[in-house]
Amino acid sequence: MENFGYIVIVPFILLISFILIGLAGGRFKPSLSGIAGTFSVFVTTVISYITAFSYFSGAGLVNGVYQKIIPYNTEWLRFTDKLVINMGILLDPISVMMLVVISTVSLMVHIYSLGYMKGDSGYSRYFSFLSLFTFSMIGLVISTNIFETYIFWELVGVSSYLLIGHYYQKPSAVAASKKAFVVTRFADLGFLIGILILSNITGTFDYSILTDPNGPAIAQGSTIAFMGLSVMTWALILVFMGCAGKSAMFPLHIWLPDAMEGPTPVSALIHAATMVVAGVYLVARLFPLYALSAPAALHFIGYVGAFTSLFAAIIACTQTDIKRVLAFSTISQIGLMMLALGVSDYGGEKGLGYMSSMFHLFNHAMFKALLFLCAGSVIHAVHSNEMNGMGGLRKFMPVTHITFLVACLAIAGIPPFSGFFSKDEILVAAFEKDFVLFIVSMIIAGLTAFYMFRLYFSIFWNKNNEYKDSPHESPSSMAVPLMFLAFASLITGFIPFSKLVTADGAGFETHIHWGIAVPAVVIALAGILTAMALYKKESGLPQRITASLGSLYRLIYKKFYIDEIYLFITKKIIFNGISAPVAWFDRKVVDNTMNGIAAVTNFISVKIKSFQSGQLQQYAYVMVSGMIIIILFALYLWNK
Amino acid sequence: MDFGQLLYMRHEIILSAIALIVLILEISISNKNIEKIIPVLTVLFFINTIAGFFPVETGSLFGGMYKTTGITILMKNILNIGVLIVLIQSAGWLKSNFTGSSNIGGYFFIVISSLIGMDFMISSGNFLMFYIGIELATIPLAALVASEKLKERSAEAGVKLILSAALSSGILLYGISLLYGTNGSLYFDNIASSFQNNSLQMLAFIFIFTGIAFKISIVPFHLWTADVYEGAPVNITSFLSVISKGSAAFILLILLFTVFKGIEGTWNSVLYFVSVLTMTIGNLFAIRQKNIKRFLAFSSIAQAGFIPLGIIGGSAIGFSSVVYFLLIYLFSNLGAFGVVAAISNATGRENIDEYNGLYSTNKGLSLVMMLSLFSLAGIPPVAGFFSKFFLFTSAAKQGYYLLVFIALINATISLYYYLLVVKAMFINKNEMPIGPVKNDAYTKLGLIICAIGIIAIGFAGIIFDYINSLTFGIK
């Protein structure tokens, strides 16, 4: 078996690029930083492709099953005799696939940014953080154990925080980056507890032991019960909480739309293709554990995914900021991937959901990155995010127009574009397992087609706006990535994914289920036609529909007021409900009581009056009474 | 008697020698040249720190009055490192504030005396020795706190410290006498072996615990902390918050694991109780602070609340985790206080608002501050994350899931207020930020050591292994 030792170069070259650009970037011409960053990612991409090619063409295959290969692993921290934390690199079908996804999208984003960010004052800072992000993301997917994943998981969070806050002069960008960081950190709280419990019951962090279907972790995990569910289930639900934070699952999705304040290429990289799918990736990484020892947790994930997906698709239909439409569409598509994992079983063809989820992840990365980069192009040209200010752009920006159309067809699931194939597998998997989820996914498919083409027609057709300085096509450094990704969206659907990436490593045959595919395509076409009728030509119809829906529309437009609810909980309940009473208690009760006692002890205090602040004796009082409380407490326990 | 045995006490002996050298230098050097003793003494202390690491046999002296083990040597070495950093950081302050009649030698003498007290305390095998050690460690501190003679706040803080310390000593002594009354002995070994677990002994335990908890500033014995930290010169505050607190935590560990092992059930519940209280109250108050020193005071109270997570359950792995936690806390807190000291000594500004836009003028200081605060908050991959993680894991291993959960929530809350300071430095705008501060070589060196410590210790798994190898003997 091939050793794949050269893969070690990947993280190192990215780390070095981050440090070099970060330290020295400001001293040279900015374009040099851009070229250095792009070069390092280019090398990464080449190595990733070589790895993927040699892995999938047989080097990873033993007896028809793709193996986990660990080219490099070293002991890092020894916690107890058994519990050891390693640092290493793990190659298996999904990590190799993610390597390809991350490096491709990152390379495209780098090339695109060379043009897009030109003239920005933080040019070299931007590229150094891009390198850091790519490094962390790749570290995350090739980790050999869950603890290593956690470290990179946090690094990804930090670097995305830095990138979202790139325009730190803008208060909204700062607020958005903070929101993203705090929400995901909150979710990571659950993740960390999950890891603690998991390591505690299984005695290991290692994926190869945790996810071995015949291994000790899966065999022993489901014995102890707590509140009706096994401890393993609880641990995995907690781990999923971290995934839900990163992957913007309801109700932790609120940070993603705001994160659109960052530069658009960053949105393409982080919020379309890589970081937001980290949650899906982690569930897939632990999939045998979920499927075999905690099916309840998996089922739960499926429903969370379905609800999020539907919910976000509905909101996407009403947004007017083009990046926000894309953000909600991302949430919806990731929900679909979670749904697919939720309806999957382990082993052979029963793992169809798993395979379709990964397949969709792969395709989605390509076309969603493309959509974001096109949106960036459009914003670059008209200097606005609002779709009301656009229209008729197809004449000015032919390349953007065509590539955007390709991406829309792909996400809508029209054959032969890539989205069709993966969505079909998801629908089949849902149909076989859970009819409710199947119906939900069908509705989502229709809604997706509708809102994407609403976006498409509003930008490129509709009214012919008067533009101040006439918009023009972007420079070639921005156009080339668009064309490459459009090409990818055309062909990736034909990759025989079911033979390559499966839950247990063994490939199987799939074919298109026309009984499901045809209705799905019809529904998608219906969505497209509705959008066409409403938005292709300028008309008052959408406004009238909006008006007739009235408060319902407003409810959806306001994203179901989720942000407001959070604000209410944090501001009103936590700040006013907890902090304010504590402050009040401190001011009124503590101070007043203390003052009363101060009067009693005044006699003694007269003698040290010149030193006293009026508080020291209170301190002593509190100390002694605290001690007495502890004594009473201990006596109570002692007598029991 | 074999004089070779005196090597067991080499920490205390070398320190006493240095203290004597300080006195001699003080007398023999004229006031004009007195600044020159700073590098001499710093180097001497550095040599002492290195000397502490040479492996020497361990054992007990004076019929069990004095004991060393691998772990006490490690604790003393950790304290040495901390004091070394404090001394390096305070050089600039000494030069600017201690001119004329005030004496620099006095400062060194007092710091070293206090450290000798701590070392004796950690090595004690008898409560009498322990008591002398703790007093020797505490009383000089009051003089240090009040050392800026012309500032009212400094004097006030000194008085507050000495008075509340007197109260806690009284309680401690009462506890010791109760213990003697029930056992007829003050030797740790005798007490541990003849523990009867009656209510009088339990009372004694709580009195002794109170005396030590006062020094670690565990709620509800923490009230002196904020006032004293705020009033004292910053460099002294960092000594108080790290060295003094660390040494008390060390002796608490030792006492609980040896003398009071018999009533583990009781101290588990007591620790549970004060841990939750300390973390929560420390955090809630830290959020409201405007003055950076008060802010760090409450943050250090909240940090102290995490220590019981490792002690609870009484496992060897928890013991190692606490020592590891304190080591990392030392670097992180000294880093933060080092920055505050540099700014305060140069400009006199101590409000968090005044830190707005600090990054635009003082890049290095802001970065060290950020690193330290991240470490205190426990954000990976800096060292603070690992220490907290180990504490949480060891508590979880003993089955205290609820406590771990509360601790995690508190860690998240603390993240909020640490980030507030980071935000002030990096994001908030300021028309008139603090001007560029010129740091002397000492300050820079001190901060660089802290920064390296914060980054490197987390990744050097060998350090935790080393601590672990020493603590396996404990249980």
Compile the SSE list and pairings.
The complex is a heterodimer of chains A (640) and B (475).
Chain A: H1 9-24, H2 30-59, E1 61-62, E2 65-66, E3 69-78, E4 84-91, H3 93-116, H4 123-141, H5 146-164, H6 171-202, H7 207-210, H8 216-220, E5 225-226, E6 229-230, H9 231-246, H10 255-258, H11 264-273, H12 278-285, H13 287-293, H14 295-316, H15 322-342, H16 352-382, H17 398-412, H18 418-433, H19 435-460, H20 476-491, H21 497-500, H22 514-535, H23 541-549, H24 551-557, H25 562-600, H26 602-605, H27 616-639
Antiparallel strand pairs in A: 1-2, 3-4, 5-6
Helix pairs in contact in A: 1-2, 1-4, 2-3, 2-4, 3-4, 3-11, 3-16, 3-20, 4-5, 5-6, 6-9, 9-12, 9-14, 11-16, 13-14, 14-15, 14-19, 15-16, 15-18, 15-19, 16-17, 16-18, 16-20, 17-19, 17-20, 18-19, 18-22, 19-22
Chain B: H1 10-28, H2 37-51, E1 60-61, E2 66-67, H3 70-97, H4 104-123, H5 127-145, H6 152-183, H7 188-193, H8 199-216, H9 223-231, H10 234-257, H11 264-288, H12 292-304, H13 307-311, H14 316-347, H15 358-361, H16 363-377, H17 383-397, H18 401-426, H19 441-459, H20 461-471
Helix pairs in contact in B: 1-2, 1-4, 2-3, 3-4, 3-10, 3-14, 3-19, 4-5, 4-10, 5-6, 5-10, 6-8, 6-9, 8-10, 9-12, 10-12, 10-14, 11-12, 11-18, 12-14, 14-16, 14-17, 14-19, 14-20, 16-18, 16-19, 17-18, 17-19
